[in-house]
User: Fold these one by one.
Assistant:
Number 1:
Amino acid sequence: MLNQEAGSRGEQSPLMGEVSTKGEREKDQESFHPQRGAIASDQEASNPHSKVAFSLVSKLCLGMLLPFAMFSCTSLDSNPKTTGGDSKPRVVATSTIIADLAQKVGGDEIQLTGVLKPGTDPHVYEPVPADSRFLEEADLILYNGYNLEPGLIKLMKASGGKARQLAVGEVVKPLQLEKAKGEIVPDPHVWGSAENAIAMVNSIRDGLIELSPEDREKFTQKAAQLTKELTQLHSWINQQIQTIPADKRKLVTTHDAFQYYGRDYKIAIAGTLIGISTEEQPSAQTVKLLVESIKKIGVPAIFAETTINPALIKTVAQEAGVKLAPQQLYSDSIGAKGSNGDSYVKMMEANTRSIVEALGGRYTPFQLKK
Ligand SMILES: [Zn+2]
């Protein structure tokens, strides 16, 4: 029996279902409830992936996805962004989301290095030699955890540095999902809810205070300001999603990064092309089932993501006869500097705008109240 948070297998959509026998497929399709609008419970929101059939991996899919993954890995040799002077405590953050939150809490009191560059997929990132040096020289390492960044976590665990290693994302109670071959894992995409991001900010604040107690007041004040902003963002997203007609409040994305968003903002995760980690590859059969299901559930648009090659989801949209939302979602990384998603708050705002506009809601900009 699965953990309750893993969702109800009986309610599962066929989109990511194991492609095994025709009989099982039909059974799955019968139990899929595409008309479901607003989500009644956590279980419904956390529509789990089940087993993606690796044996059926299409060469076409691989051909489309792998070049981008390789590009992501090889494009990271340039120096990660480091701020602050040499005398300040050295803080290393793995994901761009954590780096952004840490910079806002730490301000000028820390020397921050973000390992991943905006737009990089953390699931498949392969560390470069410079990363080892940053991790070894760090005074504090802030990482997401729940295996979001397996390459960097492995390197960090093996590094000889004395830095405290703080799994910022693991302060959030995880939703659980089933990977290929039935493995149950915690979902690492915890930042999908701004409320979870507040817990992450608290964790970063406490880690920084431990590192540099004399700056306690500054860290506390900055964290409080950010928390105020995130609290307002959380209410705003809730209000925005509710403007989408109930029967269109369904999200189809490239990979499964929006469970926490779906749960907290009451929009059903109606399908994903790739599982919890982009290491998984969709089979030709998964693609076919996704196309069929999109036709059935009647969503006006589906979504590409900034960290994943959009070629395959584009094909799915064309075959299903739906639009691909013009603005890609920022899933596992904030956007490049100057983009409309170049901070955590802006990425959440941009994602919400994209979802609301593509699914027929009424978008009004997020404005921070003093
Ligand atoms: Zn992801």
Number 2:
Amino acid sequence: MSSESSAEADTRFLHGQLPTDKELVLKVIPMPRDCNPSGDIFGGWVMAQVDMAGAVVPARYVGGRMATVAVNQFIFKQPVRVGDILSFFASVTRIGTTSITVQVEVFAESFRAQGRYFKVTEASLTYVALDEAGKPRPLERPPGAGK
Ligand SMILES: CC(C)(COP(=O)(O)OP(=O)(O)OC[C@H]1O[C@@H](n2cnc3c(N)ncnc32)[C@H](O)[C@@H]1OP(=O)(O)O)[C@@H](O)C(=O)NCCC(=O)NCCS
């Protein structure tokens, strides 16, 4: 787990607010195996978690096979450290004919002083519903999702 000192905790976790208009879709704690040579968490690991988290809401609309077609934007705002509790929030920003685009925001929470957060990453990803041949197919609508 992290060797984060309380002094570091004071500067890293500054009164961050969690979003209230997005859904919590994933929580995970990075481990030492997820680090880059500098000792921070490897960006590719964060991207993989964001891809998984972003797929949760689209899966309700797709109801079957789907694929990530685009990472429209990906911003690493702050480094992630071993032992941070990461919370992934998602919201739908566009529903197309065969695709759905999601905004994902990732917040780090102090492991030792829980309830203090800051945003580390934000991203926009697009997922496409696929048929058995791997071709785009029209989205299904979950109950209550509107048109
Ligand atoms: C996903 C795939 C089937 C789409 O094929 P395609 O011929 O580009 O399909 P289309 O041009 O008809 O586009 C399908 C949808 O994707 C959207 N799309 C395609 N390229 C896009 C891009 N660069 N950015 C955002 N959306 C895109 C289109 O707007 C369309 O959405 P809509 O129907 O809601 O308007 C194909 O690109 C593919 O198989 N890619 C590999 C997927 C993959 O391996 N992902 C990683 C592992 S999950």
